[in-house]
Amino acid sequence: xxxxxxxxxxxxxxxxxxxxxxxxxxxxxxxxxxxxxxxxxxxxxxxxxxxxxxxxxxxxxxxxxxxxxxxxxxxxxxxxxxxxxxxxxxxxxxxxxxxxxxxxxxxxxxxxxxxxxxxxxxxxxxxxxxxxxxxxxxxxxxxxxxxxxxxxxxxxxxxxxxxxxxxxxxxxxxxxxxxxxxxxxxxxxxxxxxxxxxxxxxxxxxxxxxxxxxxxxxxxxxxxxxxxxxxxxxxxxxxxxxxxxxxxxxxxxxxxxxxxxxxxxxxxxxxxxx
Length: 274
Hints:
By secondary structure, the protein is of the alpha/beta class. The chain has one domain (2-265): Purple Acid Phosphatase, chain A, domain 2 (4-Layer Sandwich). It has helices spanning 12-30, 50-59, 76-79, 128-142, 155-165, 211-220; strands at residues 2-7, 9-10, 34-38, 63-65, 100-104, 110-117, 145-151, 171-175, 185-186, 192-194, 199-202, 233-243, 248-258, 267-269. The strands form two sheets. Strands 1, 2, 3, 4, 11, 12, 13 and 14 form an eight-stranded mixed beta sheet that branches. 49% of the residues are buried.
């Protein structure tokens, strides 16, 4: 049985700090083989840089996925030169970087990780459904275990992708909205699904940003400088069990960890273990 953890949007330095401090103990307790982290907001809350993704690798992340903010930093193209850093597959073909990669578990099991970008309420992109359909033959030739990060705004679009790929990939996990959802399930065809694996960053915030500035923007309509929040830092994600021989998921559960010193209780992992 292969165990794969996918961690939700890593926001700025607080999120990177949570990974560095929490992942070693989390890996020991949850015994996952592969760790995937969406980190399109890891550099100052917007974009990626070589230094910030290297921090994530040093913390134990195996693959970094991204989304619509992937190119917000000038050095993003350099960061995408690393095979384990992905940009959405359904960006135009000449876009720098790659949309999927293959990594291996400690026992040598190949695992393909795919990054898709939704189009509903998002910036223009090619069709994610057509993009993954076209890539599936090559993906399935490379690995039986396939994990998809569906980075999208609309719940319906994420769910549609889960059902579209049911029985053809191991997991479809949503990111982008920064809120851990309560709909983790294994679909009838054996694909693990969750609408959003949440946020790794400061939760006393509005999506990782200081509350007052975001409120002022909504109330007045005026532009504001959205500083990163620092309080109540948590790491959120989902843990998936996959039959490595078939690529079929057998279980999915959610977890959320508090960074020590922020709350008295710092272990809030789901009791739904397997």
